[in-house]
Write a structure and sequence with these properties.
By secondary structure, this protein is of the alpha+beta class. The chain has 7 helices and 5 strands. A 5-stranded mixed β-sheet has the order 1-2-5-4-3, sandwiched between helices.
Length: about 260
């Protein structure tokens, strides 16, 4: 997993005052988690609480902190074996005992990376659909008037195939098999994936990309057929021209022979 996790200075960034107050409390601090492999501008605020106290006492303050980040998404809340996770795409919280913290943190970050990459693919789908209806006729036939659009069609095909490739590479991380024997980190990752419906979302995205790719594959065939037809047309006329030239030369030769 490629994540860069710099510490956010107190009072900086969204909710800086709230972050400063959280950082001032013992056993907890806020970090800004960045995902360079996804987007340079993509970051999530991560509140870490390492404590032996019962997690029930932290639930309300964690929810309040997450809501203060102005997230419009309903948070995923997990309470498991003395560990609390509150997760949204822009703010997340992990509260657990110090001895479990590292493994639990790794599980949450792994899930966040996977969910963020899938979200990036989902956000790119509307632009892939944007020209679908207008490009449908090109999947049936291709004419002289369509030649200028061939480059754009090829570009859209490449975009759709790129998204499909990213989704395929992401699939093994979405379909992770349950660990045996179960561990806290494994259970956290499994339940986060289940609660966020990663498998269903991957399936929906895959079906959409399959439909889009089928159109542009068919369009590519029509463009290839058009190019081949144009080459055959030019070749036929070249042959006709050569035959005509040969006939003219033959007639000239016959006339010169008859004159002699």
């Amino acid at each position: 997993m490629n994540t860069n996790v710099p510490h956010v200075p107190q009072g900086h960034g969204p909710g800086g005052t709230a972050n400063a107050s959280m950082n001032s409390l013992p056993g907890r601090h806020v970090e800004e988690v960045r995902f360079p492999s996804i987007s340079e501008g993509k970051s999530i605020e991560f509140l870490k609480i390492s404590t032996e106290d019962p997690i029930e006492g932290h639930l309300n303050e964690c929810l309040a902190w997450v809501h203060a980040g102005q997230s419009c998404d309903k948070p995923i809340v997990l309470e498991l074996y003395g560990t609390l996770v509150v997760w949204t795409p822009i703010r997340m919280v992990l509260a657990t005992a110090p001895q479990h913290f590292k493994k639990a943190e790794h599980a949450v970050l792994d899930f966040t990376t996977t969910a963020s990459e899938l979200g990036t693919i989902e956000h790119a789908l509307p632009s892939a659909w944007e020209h679908y209806e207008n490009d449908l006729p090109s999947g049936f036939s291709f004419h002289d008037s369509d030649r200028e659009s061939a480059t754009a069609l090829a570009h859209r095909y490449k975009q759709a195939m790129s998204l499909a490739g990213k989704l395929s590479r992401l699939s093994p991380r979405i379909h992770l098999a349950p660990e045996h024997p179960p561990t806290l980190a494994g259970q956290l990752g499994e339940r986060l994936r289940d609660r966020s419906r990663l498998i269903d979302r991957e399936e929906f995205a895959g079906e959409q990309l399959d439909t889009i790719i089928r159109l542009y594959e068919t369009t590519g065939q029509r463009v290839s057929e058009y190019v081949l037809a144009q080459r055959e047309y030019v070749l036929i006329w070249a042959i006709v021209f050569l035959l005509a030239a040969e006939i003219v030369l033959l007639l000239v030769d016959l006339l010169s022979t008859a004159g002699n």
